[in-house]
UniProtKB/TrEMBL annotation:
Highest taxon of source: Bacteria
NCBIfam families: PRK07231.1 (NF005559), PRK12826.1-2 (NF009466)
Family: Belongs to the short-chain dehydrogenases/reductases (SDR) family.
Lineage, uppermost ranks: Bacteria, Pseudomonadati, Pseudomonadota, Alphaproteobacteria, Hyphomicrobiales
PROSITE patterns, A to Z: ADH_SHORT
This protein's UniProt keywords: Oxidoreductase
SUPFAM superfamilies membership: NAD(P)-binding Rossmann-fold domains
Residue ranges constituting the Ketoreductase domain according to the UniProt record: 11-204
Protein name per the record: SDR family oxidoreductase
InterPro entries hit by this protein: KR_dom, NAD(P)-bd_dom_sf, Sc_DH/Rdtase_CS, SDR_fam
CDD domains given in the database record: GlcDH_SDR_c
């Protein structure tokens, strides 16, 4: 990891779905930049606690909180516990997300509802609670120029259609418009809202796309930059977006994708 600059000193950051993958890397990077970090998890208590202990071992402050982001009561309690632990909340990274893939004719209503429930309704519940808490604590004593900042974890599939993954692509397409509309709604009061759109990042969610040599070779054809992304690639972008360095950035999606969204099929003249 690069040398830290304490860019999130005195901030309280809540990262959903941070017991694994991209969320874990973001929680660790934000703690490394001085933030007190709430590690939210849905089921893997052991991994969440291990991360909290690692952060504390490095001199940071962290607690783990179990909550399902698609459940209203859980999300309200998650924010209550964040404020009980650290007194405020400044950065909310709505990272939790899932895939339940199927072709349209085989996709069950449950596959559809579960993915929309976590990936899109989860964004709504977390952002609504974040805005309420940012408003309640006001700008007084805020560690940043903004009153608070929300980062929604989107995907290149907010832009790139994805056959066989209609629930997932629809949820991420929804995240794009959610972020832009909310950013427009709350900008005047000093709240920033942005999204990050990762390309192919090496995490448990897409294991089958990188775990064999053949799969990885096929995947790399889609990535002009020629390598799969690491969770830390996304974490560094999230730290920057959360910090005052990005104070004038709101309502945008930052693609962290090695060029995956650049229509790589057109490299050789289409
Ligand atoms: P991951 O499976 O390691 O992480 C997802 C996390 O969300 C897990 O820790 C999981 O337990 C948690 N989660 C799932 N449902 C939850 C719920 N209801 N409540 C709380 N937590 C819940 O995979 P990842 O790649 O780290 O995914 C993180 C985010 O990045 C997701 O939103 C995903 O869509 C997005 N993303 C990932 C990639 C990639 O290539 N890995 C690409 C684009 C977008």
């Amino acid at each position: 990891m690069p040398a830290y600059a304490n860019r999130l000193e005195n901030h309280v950051a809540l990262v959903t779905g941070s017991s694994s993958g991209i969320g874990l890397a973001i929680a660790e990077a934000m703690a490394g930049e001085g933030a007190s970090v709430v590690v939210n998890y849905r089921s893997d208590e052991q991994a969440a606690n291990a991360l909290v202990e690692r952060i504390k071992g490095n001199g940071g402050r962290s607690v783990a909180v179990k909550a399902d982001v698609s459940e209203e009561e859980d999300v309200i309690r998650l924010f209550d516990e964040t404020i009980a632990a650290f007194g405020r909340v400044d950065v909310v990274v709505s990272n939790a997300g899932i895939q339940k893939d199927a072709a349209i004719a085989e996709m069950t209503l449950q596959d559809w509802n579960t993915v929309i429930g976590v990936n899109l309704t989860g964004q709504f519940l977390c952002a609504r609670e974040a805005v309420r808490r940012f408003r309640a604590q006001g700008r007084e004593g805020a560690p940043a120029r903004s009153k608070g900042t929300i980062i929604a974890m989107s995907s290149v599939h907010e832009l790139i259609p994805w056959a066989g993954h209609i629930n997932y692509a629809s949820s991420k397409g929804g995240v794009r418009m959610f972020v832009q509309s909310l950013a427009q709604e709350v900008a005047a009061e000093g709240i920033r809202v942005n999204a990050i759109a990762p390309g192919a990042i090496k995490t448990p969610i897409n294991k089958e796309a990188w775990e064999t040599e053949d799969a990885l070779e096929a995947l790399l054809k889609l990535i002009p930059y020629g390598r799969i992304g690491e969770p830390q690639d996304v974490a560094r972008a999230a730290v920057w977006l959360a910090s005052d360095e990005a104070d004038y950035v709101t309502g945008t999606t930052l693609f962290v994708d090695g060029g995956m969204s650049l229509y790589p099929e057109f490299r050789d003249n289409g």
